[in-house]
Amino acid sequence: MSDNLLLSVVEELKGIQSSQFIDEIYDPEFWLDFIPFRQKMAEKISDTLFTYEFEETFILDPTGTLRYDLHSLGKVEVLEDNQTDKGRFWKIRVTSLDPHAVALVNIRMKDLIDGIKVGFYVYELQLDLSKLDALGFGREAVIYATRTTLRKNISIFHKSLRHKKL
Prior knowledge:
Layout: E1 7-14, H1 28-32, E2 38-46, E3 49-59, E4 67-84, E5 87-98, E6 100-112, E7 115-127, H2 130-134, H3 139-163
Antiparallel strand pairs: 1-7, 2-3, 3-4, 4-5, 5-6, 6-7
């Protein structure tokens, strides 16, 4: 793991266990229910490669006044999937083809007595900031939008699974 951590989001999700969804995590249809983006699409190419397309408006600042409309087309590659004494670990590369961007994300998940603990760690973020710079935004706005979007989607995931009938 690199020492260049750009962003981390760690949440404890009470009332669910990984056994409720672990068999479905490589099914793109499973995730589409938890991602509230407009015009979303995901397709499984292989066991570790998925393509996606989505459109969404991202909030770029805490006031909610700075927004950016994004239409993205790309792929998600699972580079590593391990079970360790610390729980489950995935290393994922998300590549946006249009607009071009690459993110390297480590995900950790561990079952707790009364829930799970999940962490997202962004170690690499390569993107063309020229459009955002022209609008007066920068890398900090992208990191803010990523953090708030992750937290929102984790919350939706948590609420959905707590109410899911097994």
